[in-house]
From TrEMBL, chain A:
NCBIfam families associated with the record: PRK12509.1
Main subcellular location of this protein, as a coarse class: membrane
Residues in Na+/H+ antiporter MnhB subunit-related protein domain copies: 5-127
Keyword Lyase applies: no
Upper taxonomic lineage: Bacteria, Pseudomonadati, Bacteroidota, Flavobacteriia, Flavobacteriales
Name of the protein this chain belongs to: Na+/H+ antiporter subunit B
Subcellular location: Cell membrane
InterPro entries hit by this protein: CPA3_antiporter_subunitB, MnhB
Topology versus the membrane: Multi-pass membrane protein
Species in which this protein is naturally found: Psychroflexus longus
Similarity field: Belongs to the CPA3 antiporters (TC 2.A.63) subunit B family.
Transmembrane segments: 12-30, 36-55, 67-87, 107-133
The entry's keywords: Cell membrane, Membrane, Transmembrane, Transmembrane helix
TrEMBL record, chain B:
Domain MrpA C-terminal/MbhE: 680-759
Location(s), subcellular: Cell membrane; Membrane
Keywords, alphabetical: Antiport, Cell membrane, Ion transport, Membrane, Transmembrane, Transmembrane helix, Transport
Classification via InterPro entries: CPA3_Na-H_Antiporter_A, MrpA_C/MbhD, MrpA_C/MbhE, ND/Mrp_TM, Proton_antipo_N
Record keyword Cell inner membrane present: no
Chain ranges passing through the membrane: 28-49, 70-95, 107-123, 159-183, 204-228, 267-289, 296-314, 320-341, 362-382, 402-426, 446-468, 494-516, 560-581, 596-616, 621-641, 647-669, 681-702, 740-758
Membrane topology (UniProt): Multi-pass membrane protein
NADH:quinone oxidoreductase/Mrp antiporter transmembrane domain segment(s): 124-408
PANTHER family: NA(+)/H(+) ANTIPORTER SUBUNIT (PTHR43373), NA(+)_H(+) ANTIPORTER SUBUNIT A (PTHR43373:SF1)
Originating organism: Psychroflexus longus
Residues annotated as domain MrpA C-terminal/MbhD: 605-670
Pfam families assigned: MbhD (PF13244), MbhE (PF20501), Proton_antipo_M (PF00361), Proton_antipo_N (PF00662)
Protein name per its UniProtKB record: Monovalent cation/H+ antiporter subunit A
Length: 137, 768
């Protein structure tokens, strides 16, 4: 499937799709989107890249094995979950929010970090599954 | 009291870390644990003797009525003192018996865990905590029986014992729950007051059978007795402690505890008397055929347990007092005999009674202990055994029906027990000392002192039976008997019929001992009957069950994904089909439905074509692509019905699924006949009927009134509570965030599973 058209297109598509996935992640709290879909879009971006440039190339772009994103994401989600207990003496999973929104990103709160954790776990898990299978067949 | 129960557990936990210090000379120090507990419980003696009952309550799971409530009355104190008292001696004995054993610390760990569980069992006032401690005793006994885990025999015996007592535990749980529901309380002391409610309830018989099942398995009653002789594979201290003095009496304890609650109907008496009598006579007769010292003791223990069950079945005050006294008697002489057997085994290396003789010349203190133990066991005055035996005859003679028959059975059992006690306690020490044993010398006092102490206690209690009376017999009679009458324990009752029966028993027992010698050919003769013994029948049953489960598993676990899916779908079809057609009324309100629009129709057509193409194409890749079309059409549908989040997710997931399929299928041959027509028709019928059922189900759901309460709550509070306007996302990351957390964990597990499965296989393939 290594055609020249797909190859040149994917080198532009990868960064655009990744940016798009972050955009979806960030807008999730107000508009359709969120960590899960964002993560899926990001992993589709990498899969597309691996189709056109080969798996080894994509892996070298990623630098680390996608599997490592999973514990990292889970830790972020967990920490954001217990942050109300640690910082504000509130029950588990209570949302805490910064007073003023930050430009570009918008309102910052524990829910955003939780979503970020979901985003990373989804990328990690789906890429691990797909890469492992494509290496094995 | 909580501390007293936990001490054993804490000590065994402590041994996990500090065990290496307790393997050598310090091992003897571990007996301080049961000894301190023994002294602690002794301090309660005056209060209990006054007829007081001490309660302590710690909340554990109050919402289920499961609490750690402890009670100390005469019965509990009797068992607690027996557990800690015999425990102290066994702990001492072990330090010499298993001296320098590699895993001595481990042994002590199991032993103190068992002791703590046993204490918890007898002190529990809550039937649920009683059940938990009951199970803990089974589990710790499993480790103790299988202590020599390098021997296949030990492992098998441990498993048998765990199996039988485990079934009993399950029955106890059933009985406990039922009892708690009927009585409205899980506290045993409160159940006593609900006695009439329980005995009149329609579940009474079931409760009775469940509790009996638990007690009979634990206390090795016929036909569940066979695990006990097998359990003798354990090191002698275990046989002494668990299988004669304490654990096997847990079932008797349970029956004792339940006497004031369940003892209402004729059936209680009938079952207990019959089972107890069969057990005591059956296993007493078995004694004659045994030549292994431990085998003799095992069967005489079962017989003694039978006597106890039998007495509880009689249930009069005299019988219960007799049972309480006999518990003490039995603990004293049987534990001593076991310890003595252990010494003989340890020194001579054999337990075969036909080879042992004349050991008194080398092991004199042991011989004295053995002789006294035999006297107690035979009920010869002035030992406590005599008092106990008289009480038993007293109880049977005054039972309302069949007094003569029951008395004859009791006498027969007692004669055989007399014989068993003398064969185990006296015979090895009498006669001529064989040459090979001349070099033996007396072991450490740590080994021969414990049996001597216990047997001497048997004589002291025999001469002063008032000690037992005030300490245990009266408090027990006061709490366990409904109409308490004053009584006194005496060694000498004057000349009466009971004394005559005693004399007959002792004379016949002595005649039996001097005429009948244990022989191997007798043992071989009875082995021929093993085929119809409960043990072999049970083993066959369990083998049959294993075979059945193997067939069952092979039938369902074919390893083909399509079979699994067919089974699941078929099951759902049957279940849903039954549900829908047993109560089906469908009325569709056509007026509420909107007109179909053009784009809806076109999406439906796309869907349909995708499905048909998937089914009929011959190319795998084409089928996958067509399946993708189906998925994408669905996400379009979601979009039209204003669920953009769902549509996005469906879209991405479908893309990834198609990619996955392509990755796998790309390498397979392109065109192939995948299945024959018959299979296709079968699958087609399954799929179509499943589809129809699901459609009917959805239409049915539409009929139900809509419950919008929850979605309204989310819509109202999404922004105020969670700063979000997208309700779906707010639910995911905030309202039900913990669900999401668990879901992403599941995702990780799935990914790791795929990674592990495939990478592991790659590696083994590389090796080849």
């Amino acid at each position: 499937m290594r055609t020249i058209i797909l190859k040149s297109a994917s080198s532009y598509l990868l960064p655009v799709l990744l940016l798009f996935s972050v955009f979806i992640l960030l807008r999730g709290h107000y508009l359709p989107g969120g960590g899960f879909v964002g993560g899926l879009v990001a992993s589709i971006a990498f899969v597309l890249d691996s189709f056109s440039n080969g798996l080894d190339k994509t892996k070298s772009v990623l630098k680390i094995h996608p599997g490592f994103l999973m514990p990292f994401g889970l830790a972020i989600a967990f920490l954001s979950g217990i942050s109300p207990i640690l910082f504000s003496d509130l029950p588990l999973m209570t949302g805490i929010w910064a007073e003023d929104p930050i430009p570009v990103i918008g309102a910052i709160g524990s829910a955003l970090f939780f979503d970020l954790g979901v985003y990373l776990v989804v990328i990690g898990a789906s890429l691990t599954i797909i890469f492992t299978i494509s290496e094995s067949v | 009291m909580l501390g007293a129960v936990l001490l054993g557990f804490l000590f065994s936990l402590f041994l996990v870390f500090a065990g290496s210090y307790f393997r050598g000379k310090l091992a003897v120090l571990s007996s301080l644990v049961p000894l301190s507990l023994f002294i602690y419980f002794l301090t309660f003696l005056p209060e209990i003797a006054d007829g007081k009952v001490i309660y302590e309550n710690y909340e554990w799971i109050p919402s289920f009525g499961v609490n750690l409530s402890f009670t100390l009355d005469g019965l509990a104190l009797l068992f607690a003192l027996m557990i800690t008292g015999v425990g102290s001696l066994v702990f001492l004995y072990t330090s010499a018996y298993l001296k320098d054993h590699k895993y001595l610390d481990r042994f002590y760990g199991y032993l103190s865990m068992f002791m703590a569980a046993m204490l918890g069992l007898v002190l529990s006032d809550n039937i649920m905590s009683l059940f938990i401690f009951w199970e803990l005793t089974s589990i710790s006994s499993f480790y103790l029986i299988g202590f020599n885990n390098d021997k296949a025999d030990s492992r098998k015996s441990a498993l048998t014992a765990l199996g039988i007592t485990g079934i009993g535990g399950l029955l106890l749980l059933g009985g406990a729950v039922l009892l708690g529901e009927v009585a409205g309380t899980y506290r045993i002391s409160e159940m006593v007051m609900m006695r009439d409610v329980i005995t009149d309830s329609s579940h009474y018989l079931l409760i009775l059978l469940l509790i009996f099942g638990a007690a009979f398995t634990k206390s090795a009653q016929f036909p569940f007795h066979f695990w006990l002789p097998g359990a003798m594979k354990a090191p002698t201290p275990v046989s002494t402690y668990l299988h004669s003095a304490t654990m096997v009496k847990a079932g008797v304890y349970l029956l004792f505890r339940m006497t004031p609650i369940l003892n209402g109907d004729e059936i209680w008496h009938t079952i207990l008397i019959v089972v107890g009598a069969v057990t005591m006579v059956y296993s007493a007769i078995h004694i004659i055929f045994r030549t292994d010292l431990k085998g003799i003791l095992a069967y005489s223990t079962i017989s003694a347990l039978g006597i106890l069950v039998f007495l509880i079945g009689i249930g009069t005050q005299a019988a219960l007092v007799a049972a309480a006294v006999f518990i003490v008697v039995h603990a004293l002489y049987k534990a001593s005999l076991f310890l003595i057997t252990g010494i003989i085994d340890h020194e001579t290396g054999t337990r075969d009674v036909t080879q042992l003789s004349g050991l008194r010349k080398v092991l004199l203190p042991v011989a004295i202990a053995g002789f006294i133990a035999a006297l107690i066991s035979g009920g010869v005055p002035p030992t406590l055994g005599f008092v106990g035996k008289d009480l038993i005859y007293e109880a049977t003679l005054h039972f309302k029906d069949a007094a003569i028959f029951l008395t004859v059975l009791a006498i027969l059992t007692k004669i055989l027990l007399f014989y068993g006690g003398f064969v185990a306690g006296v015979k090895p020490f009498m006669g001529k000392l064989p040459q090979k044993f001349e070099k033996l010398h007396l072991p450490s006092p740590l080994m021969w002192m414990p049996p001597l102490i216990m047997t001497l206690a048997g004589i002291v209690f025999g001469i002063f039976p008032g000690l037992i009376e005030t300490a245990f017999a009266k408090p027990i009679a006061m709490t366990q008997v409904i109409e308490f009458e004053e009584f006194h324990l005496k060694l000498w009752h004057g000349f009466n019929s009971v004394l005559g029966l005693s004399a007959i028993t002792i004379t016949l027992g002595a005649i039996l001992y001097f005429t009948l010698k244990p022989k191997h050919n007798l043992e071989n003769a009875i082995a021929k009957l093993d085929k119809i013994a409960p043990k072999d029948l049970t083993l066959k049953l369990s083998e049959g069950f294993a075979e059945f489960s193997r067939l069952w598993t092979n039938f369902f676990q074919t390893g083909y994904l399509r079979h699994y899916i067919s089974t699941i779908v078929l099951f759902l079809i049957l279940l849903l089909g039954y549900l829908i057609f047993s109560d089906f009324s469908l009325s569709i309100d056509y007026s509420s439905l909107t007109e179909l629009t053009v784009y809806e129709i076109s999406i439906l057509l796309m869907l349909l074509m995708g499905v048909l193409y998937t089914v009929f194409t011959k190319s795998r890749l084409a089928a996958v692509a067509a399946l993708g079309v189906v998925g994408l059409s669905f996400s379009l549908l979601f979009l039209f019905y204003s669920a953009p989040d769902l549509a996005m997710t469906q879209f991405s997931v479908d893309t990834l699924t198609v990619i996955l399929f392509v990755l796998v299928l790309y390498k397979l041959p392109k065109y192939l006949k995948l299945s024959d027509t018959g299979v296709r028709i079968k699958h087609g019928v399954l799929s179509i009927s499943f589809g129809i059922l699901i459609t009917l189900l959805i239409l049915k759901v539409l009929n139900e009134p809509k419950n919008t309460e929850i979605s309204e709550f989310y819509a109202e509070n999404a922004y105020t509570l969670a700063h979000g306007k997208n309700i779906v996302n707010v639910i995911l990351v905030d309202f039900r965030g913990i669900d999401t957390m668990i879901e992403i964990s599941v995702l990780i597990v799935a990914a790791l599973g795929v990674f592990g499965l495939l990478k592991l296989r790659l590696k083994t393939r590389d090796k080849k």
